[in-house]
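Researcher: Structure prediction, please.
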Amino acid sequence: MSATHKSPRQEMIGIIARTAVADGHFPTFVPGLAVHRSSNAAEVSCGSYGPGLAIIVQGAKRLMLGEETLTYGASDYLVTSIDLPVSWQIVATPDEPYLSMSFRIDVRKVAELVDRIDDAPTPLPASPRGMTVNKLTSEMEDAALRLLRLLDRPEDSAVLLPLLEQEVLYRLLIGPHGAKLRQMATAESHPHQVGRAVAWLTENYASPLRIEELAGRVNMSVSSLHHHFKAITAMSPLQYQKQIRLQEARRLMLQERLDAGAAGHRVGYESPSQFSREYARHFGEPPMRDIGRVRRSLVHRLNGETEMLSEG
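Model: Predicted structure follows.
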């Protein structure tokens, strides 16, 4: 295939590879748009996914949500409609690095668009989960490609970005995940109420969780909150809070160099032994052993990248 007749995926690979010049996560000047590269199969990482669209153009990724695993690659796209703590592992090689793009979903703009297309048919969701993998359609791929092209033509961004964002949201709303996005943008729907509960837990993860108070905050009964929260997040509210706490503690130890006792106390654990047990259960190792391994892995990776640069 000639250079002037690249497939959409080849063109997306080229744009992302030029933008993400090294391994890592790269926010761009286009609001909400980021690109990602990883040259090696990475160890398990963790973090939170907010409402957004993610498309892999090369490689694959395994996402662990609660006790479930989602796998997606270059023929799929991922949609997340609510903040979710997840773990993931990238599948890549140096010859074919993992390359992907992500675009943040503004729920307020979803609500505005729903009012304009309310008569459009919406497929019923196969699952209430707030994170799903769907097959990439030619229409979605084309909209995502034109969004990426803005990275090569920044002078077009001010005029074209609002139009392209609206098209991406429209494609999502009429796709398999559309009903969930509509519900998240509709006040007093169960997904919207769960979203409010998630927002409170995310902001107050270090505070004791009183489920009756949380249910009252979002105008739900305790039983309804438990049922819909688990259906959407694959976790109970307590399990959700625990994952947020453990991920934040890991970040504090890695980035702020707190010891395990201080990190556990900061995120709300009163018992150091309980923190250590739950940390080991979640990450597979006690806190300091896990942090030491991650730091050694980062040093090894940085040394490898330095050698590659010096050879080049």
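Model: The radius of gyration is 21 Å.
Researcher: Thanks, that helps.
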